Amino acid sequence: MASRTLSASERALTLYEALPYPNVPLSQTARNALPEMFKMSYTTAQYVRTHAVIEPEGKVLLNAGCGSGWETLMMAEANPGAKIVAFDLSPASVKLTEERLRYHGFTDTEFYVLNLLELDRLGIQFDFISLNDVLYLLEDPTDGLRAMKRVLKPEGIIRANLHHRYQRQVFFRMQEAFQMVGQFDVAPATGAKNVREFMGSLQEEVAKGVLWNPASYTEDPAILNNYLLSNDKGFTIPELFEMLRQAGLGFLSLVDMPDWSVESLFKEVPEFVRRKLEAMSPMERLQLYELIRPAHRLIDFWVDHAGSSLVFPWSDEDWLEGSVQFNPILLDSPRFHQEYTKALQENRPYEMQWTGATHGRITLPADKLKWLAPLLQGPTPVREVIQGVVELGSLEAEKAADEVLTYLTALEDFLFILLQPSL
Ligand SMILES: C[S@@+](CC[C@H](N)C(=O)[O-])C[C@H]1O[C@@H](n2cnc3c(N)ncnc32)[C@H](O)[C@@H]1O
């Protein structure tokens, strides 16, 4: 009997039904995975879109292509009071997701076995959709974006991502090589074993050149999701923007935007580059960055219905009359409170992972920990923060106001704190 070519969905189903992804024990909590929870936070995404602090309570959130539910758990933990809907092509994955959410006590949930392209069959409209590590597996990712747009409420936001063409080029080359030596036609466990044998047989320098490090590939899924991933594809920034245009979606931001700063690539930006940068669109700046330093595995983005977002820059008055708060995922994190308080008591800086900051890390110097301490209790008027800094004794009122506003503005760029103007 002649064998036919499997569709992208059939290939995904074969792999993920056998090995639901990721392989994380049911009992592990996601509550401290702040860098990932950041990407799943409805409030953070809406703040990027509108500058408003909107609570997730009562919102309907969708984790599309939920895999084994690790990400779904993060979504539930990052968005207290929201209804969580999750689906995947793979029944085994959906079952695990359901068990995981139940194990951790989340009950306002719904689970479905479904193809992303048939999402409208659910008859539900969503406030926020997260699709992590799925879009690039589809035959045509634009169809996936269109499917999500059809079920997105008018004010809703989609967070999704694509593999980066340049960053991941070694894997795309090796996937082709392994196809040539027949490893896409064998059972997953056999393929993983053969990849290990193949890589172990390469000259040392050659193996390094294809990013082979045996310690990183002791588990089969690591091999299957990289060197043997079917239908894996890479994209560039202009290609993403073209897909969004075709799907009628509007680009809001990359979720790790500070890490795509062209200026950060230079010791000093040459004058002719600076002049060009001033005239560039956001897309062109990101494109220039990826051409110089394709460092990110994913192009990870927030989008909405094209033309529906409107964000005005904050004025000095908004700042002075407003209140600031830590991003709610920080405020809700017992670990953040504990570590912050400990660093404060020991009068030392506090360094942590934070997706919104440059290189995914942020350091709060010891003096700034004191400045921001009132925010641990909740939203705090900016004038109170300034007054507190004056009372600490090292700065006069005017200088304190200047320095506090400069610092708060930088933290707001990282979505580490959010501003609420006075009403
Ligand atoms: C790499 S895993 C990612 C799982 C999860 N999103 C995460 O990040 O932990 C890819 C998942 O996408 C699912 N998938 C692939 N194509 C799909 C489709 N067309 N519709 C629904 N799910 C799909 C697979 O079954 C698999 O569980």
UniProtKB/TrEMBL annotation:
Coiled coil: none annotated. Residues 58-181 form the Methyltransferase domain. GO terms for biological process: methylation. The keyword Transferase applies. The keyword Transferase applies. PANTHER family: METHYLTRANSFERASE TYPE 11, S-ADENOSYLMETHIONINE-DEPENDENT METHYLTRANSFERASE RV2258C. This is Class I SAM-dependent methyltransferase. It comes from Thermostichus vulcanus str. 'Rupite'.
